[in-house]
Each structure stands twice: as C-alpha cells, then as structure tokens.
Amino acid sequence: MNEEPQTVTPLTPEGHSLPAALVAGSVAAAAGAMVWAAVTVFTGMQIGWMAVGVGFLVGFAVRRFGKGADPTFQILGAVLSLVGCLAGNLLAVCAFASRQQDVPLMSVLAGLTPGLAVQLIVKTFSGMDLLFYGIAVYEGYSFSRVPAAPPPVAGA
User: Fold this and answer.
1) How far apart are the C-alpha atoms of 156 and 143, rounded to whole Å?
2) In a 3-state reduction of DSSP, which class is residue 21?
3) Could you give the C-alpha distances from 53 to 25, 89, 91, 93, 129, in angstroms and in order?
4) DSSP designation for 12
5) Sign, Cα dihedral of 123, 127, 128, 131
6) Closest to 16 (Cα-Cα) out of 92, 61, 70
7) What is the pTM (predicted TM-score) of this model?
8) What's the Cα-to-Cα distance from 88 to each of 11, 19, 54, 127, rounded to whole Å?
9) Other C-beta atoms within 10 Å of 124: how many?
10) Which is nearest to 36 in space by CA: 47, 28, 25?
11) Whole-number Å distance between alpha carbons of 119 and 121
C-alpha cells in the first residue's frame, strides 16, 4: 500500500508573537483604563460595564497582534484585563481627589506610591467590582486566543 504522509497543522499560526501581544494588550489596557476613568469622572458614577469594554479591548488587541493559539495568550489577556480594570478605578479615584483638593491630576499621580495605590483600590472596592472584574477577566481570556486550526481529517 502506497500511503501519502499526512501533514500536521501547527496549533499556533506562523507569525505569532508574545511580545507583540504584551505591548498591544498593555496599550489597550491603558486606553481602556483612561476611558473608564473619564466616563466615571464625567458621569460621577462608576459604570461597571466599562470593565466589559476593557476585557474585550484587551482580548482583541492580544489576539490581533499576538496571533497566538496557545493558552499563554489567554492568560496574558486575562491578567492585562484585570490590570486595566484596576487602573481605571485607580485613575478615577485620583481624578476625584484632584478635583476635591483642587490640584492638577498629574500632581496626585506623582504622589501615588504602590502602597497608597493598593489602599485606594481596597477602600473603593465593592462587591459589584468583583462581578465586573470577573467578566472582564473572562473576556480577556476568551478573546485573546486565535482559534486553533482544526485537526486534519483522516484520509483526506
């Protein structure tokens, strides 16, 4: 019997790049955080659905620029989505503090230390944040991966 060898389709398409995914996802997380903070400050309300937008934006950026099909890209998307949500809330708190103290936002941000940032996030955290952060992490995880190529059909 003369059988032709089957070709194996790689799980990750050519041209995948974890560094590109990291950069694009980080930019998307930062942009999402800024939009979240701006909407929160201008409306005077924290709108949890902004987290959904951050998760989608980060996931899309990681998938578009990373082009990876392995779970590493999904984990990256999930982590960056959570970071974007936390940064959005923190930036909004800083903007409100800036208004209340009548000092430039950059001055407030310049005085921010990691310890103070954690304190502010903890003090302003609510149960609903957990729900929306969870949705954002899920979206960042779900949207960050390029679908794996289907396995080759036997005998085709």
Assistant:
1) 31
2) helix
3) 13, 14, 16, 19, 14
4) S
5) positive
6) 70
7) 0.83
8) 34, 23, 9, 17
9) 14
10) 47
11) 5
Coil, strand or helix at 13: coil
Which H or E run includes 138?
A: helix 127-143
The residue written with tokens 């949207």 in the block is 143
Q: Is 29 helix (H, G, I), strand (E, B) or coil?
A: helix
Amino acid in the structure at residue 72: T
Q: What is the DSSP string of 44-108?
A: SS--THHHHHHHHHHHHHHHHHH---SHHHHHHHHHHHHHHHHHHHHHHHHHHHHHHHT--HHHH
pLDDT tier, 9 (very low <50, low <70, confident <90, very high otherwise): very low
Cα separation, 121 vs 115, in Å, equals 10
CA distance 81 to 44: 23
Say if residue 134 is exposed, middle or buried (CB neighbours under 10 Å; 0-12, 13-18, 19+).
Answer: middle
For residue 149, give both structure tokens.
Answer: 């190529």
End-to-end CA distance of the chain: 16
- pLDDT digits 0-9 by tens, 35-72: 999 999 999 988 888 999 999 999 999 999 999 999 99
